[in-house]
Amino acid sequence: MSTNPIRIKRVYEQPSREDGFRILVERLWPRGLSKEKARIDLWLKDIAPSTELRRWFGHEASRWVGFRARYRMELEKKPQWTAQLEERLKKGRITFVYAAKDQAHNSALVLKEFIETPKA
């Protein structure tokens, strides 16, 4: 695992130089936002939670524990995508950009934790 930190930021926040390489980790493009304003370097739709999981979660905080566990299981089945993120991280700071309003319960947090957890 690299020593470069992974940051997390809502896509609606102002991009900054400190963000480094900005990766949109959503399956759907954020509503009402132009590509120019978002300043996304890479859009990884396929690393986002499945449509079924996203719909089940529905950003209900009461489903957070179940969502987190299910999304981690999905990520374990996507080694090519997580490996791509780990390689990118070796080149410098990355920021996972997400659209959810809830900053404490979103898929970018789970993805960050997954990537930063040492693999057995």
Tell me the distance between the termini. Answer: 12 Å
| Portion in helices | 25-40%
Low-confidence stretches: none
Structural class: alpha/beta
The SSE string, one letter per element, is EEHEHHHEH
Number of domains: 1
User: Rg, please?
Assistant: 14 Å
By DSSP, the count of extended strands is 4
Mean pLDDT, nearest integer?
93
Inertia-based shape: globular
Question: Which sequence of strands runs across the widest sheet?
Answer: 1-4-2-3
Number of discrete helical segments = 5
- Give the strand content: 5-15%
Q: Characterize the biggest β-sheet.
A: 4 strands, parallel
What would you note in describing this structure?
The chain is an alpha/beta fold and 120 residues long. The chain has one domain (6-116). It has five helices and four strands. It has helices at 35-38, 51-57, 64-76, 79-90, 107-116, and strands at residues 6-10, 21-24, 42-43, 94-98. The chain has a four-stranded parallel β-sheet, covered by helices on one side. Helix 1 (35-38) links the parallel strand 2 (21-24) and strand 3. The chain is globular and about 35 Å long. The model has no long low-confidence stretch (mean pLDDT 93).
